[in-house]
Amino acid sequence: MNKILINIVVAFSLSAGSASVWSNASMGGINSLGVYDISIDTSTLNGISAGLSFDFLANSPGFADFVRISNFETDGAFDFLSFDTFGDVSVNPGSNATLGSSVDFSQFFQPLVLGDFVNFRLDFRNDPDAVLPGSTDFQNIFTVTLTDETGEDSLVQTDDSEGTDALLQADFSITLPQTAALSLFNASGLTITATPVAAVPLPAALPLMGFAISILAGLQKRRKLLMV
């Protein structure tokens, strides 16, 4: 009996550990395709008024893909009240923004004064049950570009093959189950890093784990009493 319960606890632990901030497993039809903490060393541009342009090119409207941007940090200053949006975008100012693929192009533009660093989190998701009308022959593409305060020109040159001077790009696959491949570009004067966010337990799994552990503890206590 104890061995069985130990296996149950291990099973709960493994299933709980399979979730990321949103969950790598399907929750309400939404799948996480990866969560990354992005850090940009902007010390060479300290004090410059700039903007972060988050762009979602929905080449493949047949797939319901999403990107959430959150955890904004800088030792400069964000202007969270002066953001701009276009297309399929929802924003909680100062907290997060979510871009979707229901239209051909979506953009979230966040103004800031640069300090020595800028950090934010990217969460790539899709809803495999919500295949939209349209072609699935081309990839959905998400990019992040550091621009001037008008959003018109990039502040740095990168080796982005598209010539847009993007800092990074995520390519969503055109087959199910989808993936989102993240690429970082070399940028003049900047250092960009992407750290995958470690899996965390699903909140719903924690009570189940506690229940299994409490049963195991009770049986251990009973076994000791019988041995006396």
Question: How would you explain this protein's 3D organization?
Answer:
The chain is of the alpha+beta class. The protein has helices at about 1-15, 205-225; strands at about 30-40, 50-60, 65-75, 75-80, 85, 90, 95-100, 105-115, 115-125, 140-150, 170, 180-185, 190-195. A hairpin with a 7-residue loop joins strand 11 (about 170) and strand 12. The protein is globular. It starts with a helix and ends with a helix. The model is unreliable at about 1-30 (pLDDT under 50).
Secondary-structure blueprint:
Elements (H helix, E strand, L loop, with lengths): L1 H15 L14 E11 L7 E10 L6 E10 L2 E2 L5 E3 L2 E4 L3 E5 L4 E9 L3 E10 L13 E9 L19 E5 L7 E5 L6 E6 L8 H23 L1
Antiparallel strand pairs: 1-9, 1-13, 2-8, 2-10, 3-7, 3-9, 4-8, 5-8, 6-7, 10-11, 11-12
Helix pairs in contact: 1-2
Poorly predicted parts: 1-28
Helical region count? 2
Arithmetic mean pLDDT? 80
Q: Helix/strand-derived class?
A: alpha+beta
Distance between the termini: 19 Å
